[in-house]
Amino acid sequence: MVLFGGRSGEHGISCATAGGVLRAIDRDRYDVLAVGITPTGRWVLADDDPDRWAIRDGRLPVVEDTLTHVLLPQDAGERAVRVIEPGEVPRPLGDVDVVFPLLHGPFGEDGTLQGMLELADVRYVGAGVLASAVGMDKHMMKVVLTGAGLPVGPFVVVPPGAFVRDPEGQLERIRALGLPLFVKPARAGSSLGITRVDDLADLPAAIATASEHDPKVVVEAGIVGREIECGVLGGRGGARPRASLPGEIVVTGPEHAFYDFEAKYLDEGGVRLDAPADLPPDVVERVQDVAVAAFEAIGCEGLARVDMFVTPGGDVVVNEINTMPGFTPYSMYPRLWETSGVPYAALVDELLTLALERPTGLR
Q1: Bond from prior residue into 312 cis (ω within 30 degrees of 0)
Q2: Residues near 238 by Cβ (< 8 Å), separated by ≥ 6?
Q3: What positions carry a catalytic annotation?
Q4: 20, 223, 226, 282: which is deepest, by most CB within 10 A?
Q5: pLDDT in tens, 115-169
Q6: Strands 123-124 vs 98-101: parallel, antiparallel or unpaired
Q7: pTM to 2 decimals?
Q8: In which domain, by residue range, is 7 found?
Q9: Would you state the pLDDT for residue 330?
């Protein structure tokens, strides 16, 4: 089952990701069932034509309610997926061996969906419940990575409602970070709700913007350095995870203060993705080591993209880990593996193989 869409603000990106996977997956090896989750949370039988889920003219695709609703297995050990249509008796679609959950953001990438699949004893691609939850929450992710001894930049967490109750107290905590600042929703992706702040007078508005996506807000100190990303892929048969060659994000459009949502998905001319990044061999090795260490620190499985800064002095600082990175053929994660010798279709197959290999339940 290729599962996509969902209730988060990244619904359209998830659909575009699904289009890439549906195009690449080996239909001779896998029987593919496409299931979409509408923005209201309804599970529906979806079109498995990759072209249906492409980004066209700057418009993101959307899962619409088809009235053909999907029922998942109801107990451990059952694999049958059924559909319900108006006025009809539920009919079986077949047994599902593995789910490829291509959802981004809350209610899909944050451990909620993973928990449901665990309850049904269904294998799935990617991180489990804990790693998904930790990777989604920038606050907890930084706590875990710091506890593992990994380098993380200075930050302040603004709990839900704290800035309204005590703006001066929160401002005093944040002021110590210096400028510029990056104000982010704690549990959102694709740069949704993120604001760069160069003047503290703009901080209340930035916190309000982030709060539209998540009541918990993270404020990070700006770090001078190159934006470097590294893909991580789980190891076969208990082997250690593998790291790709690093890539670099270079924002070229003057209208983008950073790598924001529009630069990522809607303005191809405003950003350049260099894969591989032009880095000295010792820095490449350091980036790869930190990426694998971050993957292991949160207990990740399957895949992740680790975003880092490389400072002018050559230090590597972790920005965040993404347990279900963008997966269109043009996204950084598959592009990094293409550069590292694993083409897109082979990468999709490897992720499915890893998911089928691992046991269900505690592991």
Answers
A1: no
A2: none
A3: 10, 190, 331
A4: 20
A5: 999 998 999 999 999 999 999 999 999 999 999 999 999 999 999 999 999 999 9
A6: parallel
A7: 0.92
A8: 2-124
A9: 82
